[in-house]
Automatic annotation (TrEMBL):
It comes from Ferrimonas marina. InterPro entries: QSregVF_b. This is DUF3820 family protein. It comes from the Bacteria.
Length: 75
């Protein structure tokens, strides 16, 4: 897996909705499942959200924590 992508997952924030401004990796799994059932957003954001769900579903969210950058987010 691309280390750059993992760093993006750890630091990128949700651009809209109930969890706007929250880091993708901290989104509740229930919300990610709901969004999956509703349909992922088109483009890179949808792909990243699907990957975050897969990581969390497999209990691997802790692997992204060391990649969190202080005060910085990417969008």
């Amino acid at each position: 897996m691309d280390p750059k992508l993992l760093r993006e997952l750890a630091n990128e924030t949700m651009p809209f909705g109930k969890y706007a401004g929250q880091r993708l990796m901290t989104l509740p799994i229930a919300y990610l499942v709901w969004m999956q059932n509703k349909g992922w957003p088109a483009g890179p954001l949808g792909e990243k959200l699907a990957l975050v769900l897969e990581i969390k579903h497999n209990g691997l969210g802790y692997l992204l924590k060391p990649l969190v950058e202080e005060g910085g987010t990417t969008q």
